[in-house]
Amino acid sequence: MSLVVGLDPAHRSTAVLHLAAMLARSADTDLVVATVLPQTWPLAAGSADAEWRGYTRDTANLVLDHAAAVLGGSVRAEYLVHEASSARRGLAELAVDRGAALIVIGSSSAAPVGRIALGSESDALLHASPVPVAIAPRGFRAAEDARVGRVTAAFRGTDSSGDLVLGAAGVAAAVGADLRIASFAVVPPESGTSGAGLDAEKRIARQWAEDIAHQASGLLAQVSRLEEAPRIAGTEIGVGDNWDAAMTQVEWRADEVLVVGSSTLGPIARVFLGSHAAKVVRHSPVPVVVVPRGAAVPDLD
């Protein structure tokens, strides 16, 4: 299965290409690198609209030329301009038409370097994509021969996030990576309570962490019994007084991807980020793969 890479037709991007190349090398698959331009009615020759359309297509082709130079033949790739009513619809169409396992996009320029922010188009894609979406943090770079070395599954203690862990195990095994489980929680230092009330909140957080660790241990035992089991890298739990603190309490590697499940409130087989998942995505220091509810974790075997 190929991976569809979405590029902004008006801006050169390097981070998304580095992530896409790392994923393609890991899965030994090819890339469909695309810019999406808005569909228009046939235009009369010489009209201002025709000139604008020619300009936008030329700009999109320059973006694709830059992408080819960045990738440099390190992975198999096809480059194309696709027309659709919107960028998110165009990428979703390409994913279905090409039988893609994954759509890869970059972060909005509004994100701090090393973090992820969703722009209007990427947010719309997450709500419409029929396949998992991988997001590169702003400024992400990977070595020319880099491959995914560890897959971390975000676990909340729910049945759906348990299924996500088992799916992530299959991905880790397919690409020869380690599998790790991670959970995150925030206990604000000023939450309207003090004294005994604050102590109670801390006790609840400790009990939650113990429960998560116990459930994660059972899941990893299931993973170890799989016919094709990945190497297991254990469980880490990050608890902090804000999301940055909780996420940075966990150790991260340069060759890591974080797999996050979408909310059960969203439509089946579509991505819909709940508030917890959205915060994990925004504060992740590594690339994130968001999996639609009811859809499989990407089959990269």
Q: Would you identify the CATH H-level superfamily of the largest domain?
A: HUPs
CATH architecture of the largest domain: 3-Layer(aba) Sandwich
Note the run of SSEs as H and E.
EHEHEHEHEEHEHEHEHE
Shape: globular
Give the oligomeric state: single chain
Largest sheet: 10 strands, mixed
Query: What is the name of the CATH topology of the largest domain?
Result: Rossmann fold
Describe the structure.
With 301 residues, the protein is α/β, with parallel strands linked by helices. It has 8 helices and 10 strands. Strand 9, helix 8 (275-283) and strand 10 (288-291) form a beta-alpha-beta unit. Helix 3 (87-97) packs parallel to helix 4 (120-128). The protein has helices spanning 15-27, 48-71, 87-97, 120-128, 159-175, 196-224, 243-248, 275-283; strands at 3-7, 31-38, 77-84, 102-106, 133-136, 150-154, 178-186, 231-240, 256-261, 288-291. Helices cover 39% and strands 21% of the residues. A 10-stranded mixed beta sheet has the order 3-2-1-4-5-10-9-6-7-8, sandwiched between helices. The protein is globular, with a radius of gyration of 20 Å. The longest helix is centred in the last third of the chain and has 29 residues, at 196-224. It has 2 domains: 3-136, 3-Layer(aba) Sandwich (Rossmann fold); 150-252, HUPs (Rossmann fold), CATH 3.40.50.620. The termini are close together.
TL;DR?
The chain has helices at 15-27, 48-71, 87-97, 120-128, 159-175, 196-224, 243-248, 275-283; strands spanning 3-7, 31-38, 77-84, 102-106, 133-136, 150-154, 178-186, 231-240, 256-261, 288-291. It is α/β, with parallel strands linked by helices and 301 residues long. It has 2 domains: 3-136, 3-Layer(aba) Sandwich (Rossmann fold); 150-252, Rossmann fold, CATH 3.40.50.
